[in-house]
Task: structure prediction
Amino acid sequence: MTLATDVLAGNRRALSRALTLIENGLDGRDEILAELYPRTGRAHLIGVTGAPGTGKSSLVNQLALAFRQQGRTVGIIAVDPTSPFSGGAILGDRIRMRDLSGDSGVFIRSMATRGSLGGLARATADALKAFDAAGFEIILIETVGAGQAEVDIARHAHTVIVVEAPGLGDDVQAIKAGILEIADILVVNKSDDPRAPNTVKALRAMLDLGSQRSAQAMVNHHGRVLEAIQPVIDGNSQSGWNVPIQLTTATDGTGVAELVAMLETHRSYLVESGELARRVQAQMAYELDSLLRDALLERLLASVDSSAMASVVEQIAARRLVPHAAARMLVSGLTEA
Amino acid sequence: MTLATDVLAGNRRALSRALTLIENGLDGRDEILAELYPRTGRAHLIGVTGAPGTGKSSLVNQLALAFRQQGRTVGIIAVDPTSPFSGGAILGDRIRMRDLSGDSGVFIRSMATRGSLGGLARATADALKAFDAAGFEIILIETVGAGQAEVDIARHAHTVIVVEAPGLGDDVQAIKAGILEIADILVVNKSDDPRAPNTVKALRAMLDLGSQRSAQAMVNHHGRVLEAIQPVIDGNSQSGWNVPIQLTTATDGTGVAELVAMLETHRSYLVESGELARRVQAQMAYELDSLLRDALLERLLASVDSSAMASVVEQIAARRLVPHAAARMLVSGLTEA
Result:
């Protein structure tokens, strides 16, 4: 029995070990991912993002409970991109466990950055594969904050929920405009707040302004591989989906059943319109982009003597060589060799 | 006269045009950077980061005024990584201009992400070169927030100031621990707040816990090229610098003169210990890393038919091909060709 076999058999301890291996980039990661990958593609990947203080974590818990009541298994990945080195995810698994503990149909995991942001996005994508292969039907990806990092991670989802709260951040409309572009469903949580109707109205107005996710933004985000294949694939996201706004109160579950129904509707829309296939293709293009960059750099480093490389870096640092020219030189040296 | 010549001659309009060209990745960017690069390396690059609400922007303004009083020219780059698509930097140049307007020894520029975070870090690094080549002696790089994005950008600096404020975020020690690792100087702003001494005490305790920037974190951050050349360069940052904590009140300038003196001391330490050369080398290795990835991927895309690439992506999306295996296949195809 390999670790991958145990994960596929639904062994929780094996999944936990596999996730640690993935998160830390340990030996054997590529092998286990290769074994798991063919068994992925069944889960509905739901990204949940929004600023701190919106009650996002409580909402994720409520969604998990609602899906469990339908008898569906739920994986939760809580991603914290604000903790760059220390590794301690601030969304403690322990706190989350209070409502969901003892339920073998739920699996919760927190992830924090170790090193680079690119590393976190990659680790999250790979962790999703492990959850998916282990058979979880719904996977909720929760991110802290609302910056570029969160956008990068939310893009691994099929459906993106952006959570807002009344009266929060009315002065940072510029940020909202950015985050709205990735929303498939908007949630105004804390709907018992008297300012909630105004927040809904403001969001509706912003949506009507047409800040929909543009094909160009998708390409920018998903990188050069997607851009290269765009002319030969049917890559244009059409806008057959109108972003709905749902009021919720996560503390008592108000609106959560409606939100679950909306998620179902969006999933059906994705499948029937062909948009799911397009999104998955864009995600895979993005992943291939990043893997190719890594593999190509490794190959170059293997072919260039480390003292020669050190000399190039020293010459750049001494301003005797321009970085772009140095890169071109190293790359063309490869071709000649 | 080329645009680069005008920038080098200190023409403000030319610098502004060059920065637009750099930020938007327009045609001619590489050429102008190649002309500017040999004239860089003279400025002191100072990163200023910290959570919103710490009074960071006011402190940057005060620092700029203090350096101007010494007769030194100052460039300010305000980077906003929280605005992923919309392009509008929330730190308006106009607001900043109130104290510093009409002074030809100061140049202020805001930058927001367009597309990817990697793109912003690159554009920031290139904008720094333009400021440096244009002759600004002090360049302040201000970032919003305290996540990985800010860390990435602060790493382009020689000296990193992390700004805290009393009573802010006492519950998110995990975040602070991460950001402390990149600090050369800690500032507790709003020193007139009665909680300021406690904040200083807490920060001192955390510093004593030894969360100093580790060589491994540097390598993780600066990528594979640095890791590859590490054995042949003297790459270990020694810890001959004790991170000082300075109290300031940016609204009235209290403590700013002391902070400027500290920055001078740190600059001297960097030069005399050889740490400046090491940091510049690490920065250049990082930049080369990223440029090599781009150039190598471009070369691969030029050699692979777009429909062949589309077919690979489709096979990955259909789970018939594992992403890692696909990347290896494409890269080894290059070798055989």
The domain at 3-274 of chain B is CATH 3.40.50.300 (Rossmann fold). The first strand of chain B starts at residue 44 and ends at 50.
